[in-house]
Design brief:
It is a single chain. This protein is an alpha+beta fold. It has one domain (about 10-175). About 15% of the residues lie in helices and about 40% in strands. The protein contains 2 helices and 13 strands. The chain has helices at about 95-105, 160-175; strands at about 10, 15-20, 20-30, 35, 40, 55-60, 60-70, 75-80, 85-90, 110-115, 120-125, 130, 135-140. It has a 5-stranded mixed β-sheet, covered by helices on one side. The protein has a 4-stranded antiparallel β-sheet with strand order 2-3-9-8, with helices on one face. Strand 2 (about 15-20) and strand 3 (about 20-30) form a beta hairpin. The two termini are about 25 Å apart.
């Protein structure tokens, strides 16, 4: 991979809904992903420099379906010990309503992010790539399977049935990734 080349995308599945807001992780640190001919993991701090920029939230990486952005305050991003956390206030648009409905039903596939790697932002050990610094362009709510299988989809609704549903979705995701 050439540093600073074409934008890359990675998917995760950690999403919760609360009112017209979804929250979760767009990326997790240390989780290994099989990207095809190589494996990849994200180092803690990889997004730190990107948090100061304007990042978009989209549906399925479609720039025609913007759900929010950091510049307007409708998308909030932060890094913690687990990964890149997000909180997104969904708009009252068709795309926003679709995301809300799919999230409430447990049908969201997860989150993804689009990025480029600046010069010196990655390291390789054999066929394993570690992302140390990324230029984050966007995060997306997606219906595809996550590239990083250690994540999960979770709804922020109260009740024991939600925890059972989350475990069931995790098992289904694991079977699909096998």
């Amino acid at each position: 991979m050439a540093a600073g080349g074409d934008m890359e995308r990675r998917a995760f599945a950690e999403v919760r809904t609360a009112g017209r807001r979804i929250e979760g992780y767009a990326a997790v640190f240390g989780s290994m992903a099989n990207i095809g001919s190589y494996h990849e993991r994200i180092a803690p701090g990889a997004f730190r420099a990107a948090l100061a920029g304007d990042v978009l939230a989209m549906l399925d990486h479609d720039p025609g379906k913007v759900l929010g952005r950091t510049r307007s305050g409708t998308l909030r991003l932060s890094e913690d010990s687990r990964g890149l956390a997000f909180s997104l206030d969904l708009p009252d648009t068709q795309a926003g309503r679709d995301v809300l409905a799919l999230g409430e039903r447990g049908d969201l596939g997860g989150m993804s992010f689009g990025f480029t790697v600046p010069e010196g932002g990655e390291s390789w050990q054999g066929s394993t790539r570690t992302l140390r610094t990324v230029a984050l362009r966007e995060i997306s709510v997606v219906s595809a399977w996550p590239a990083y299988p250690d994540t999960e989809i979770a709804l922020r609704a109260a009740g024991a049935g939600q925890e059972r549903a989350r475990r069931r979705r995790r098992l289904i995701m694991a079977e699909l990734m096998a």
